[in-house]
Write a structure and sequence with these properties.
By secondary structure, this protein is of the alpha+beta class. The protein contains 8 helices and 7 strands; from the N terminus they run αααβααβββααβαββ. α1 packs antiparallel against α2 and α2 runs antiparallel to α3. The longest helix has 23 residues. The chain is elongated, with a radius of gyration of 22 Å.
């Protein structure tokens, strides 16, 4: 097989693999790379209709990637809805994604979290943050979960940025659980800082 054929098959494989992705950002990025490779391959053959089609698809992917990255940390793009810990819809979300939640949060129990927040992007639920009262004006995070499609983003940050989500309940600090140490970079970006062996977010008075 000559090098040109390898490039053509490689570009096609990238497009197929992109469509198997559950994460929307990764899907768009891989699809864009595949389209660019196929533009070069089809131009070399040459098959101009395929060059045109892949060029259009590449532009579409660029536009979608630009929009996704532009609104990645945009507070206007996401809404935080506080719901009761026993809310029916919340329970449905947690049950639907129970296996995925357990994978990253072993031992998690939904009944221990009286404070619940849904992160919405329009009509779509993209994340869930659950917490309980740890005493002394501190809220302990029990779950910061992002649905797989949006895992390249950090929608939970909007719960922490909206300080009234916790201060309205009399909390002065938010504590991250030890299992979130792997997310230390993300937590520090939204204001958490080390305090002993844990990460803590100080809320404004």
């Amino acid at each position: 097989m000559d090098i040109l054929s390898v490039i053509g098959w490689g570009g096609s494989a990238l497009v197929v693999v992109s469509l198997l992705q559950t994460r929307i950002l990764r899907l768009r990025a891989l699809n864009l790379v595949g389209c660019v490779v196929l533009i070069g391959f089809n131009a070399a053959i040459p098959v101009w209709p395929m060059v045109g089609m892949n060029a259009v698809l590449a532009v579409i992917n660029v536009v979608h990637l630009w929009r996704l990255l532009r609104h990645r940390h945009d507070v206007e793009e996401y809404a935080v809805l506080e719901v009761d810990g026993a809310d029916t819809y919340l329970g449905h979300v947690l049950r639907t994604h129970g296996k995925d939640i357990s994978k990253f949060n072993p031992g998690f129990r939904t009944t221990d979290s009286p404070y619940a927040f849904l992160v919405q992007q329009g009509e779509r639920t993209v994340g869930v943050v659950l917490a309980h009262d740890a005493g002394e004006g501190r809220a302990q995070i029990d779950l910061d979960y992002v649905l797989p499609k949006y895992r390249d983003f950090t929608p939970g940050e909007f719960v922490y940025r909206r300080s009234d989500a916790f201060t309205d309940h009399g909390f002065r600090q938010v504590l991250a659980p030890p299992r979130m140490r792997d997310s230390a970079g993300y937590l520090r970006k939204v204001g958490f800082h080390p305090e002993g062996d844990r990460l803590v977010l100080d809320l404004p008075a």
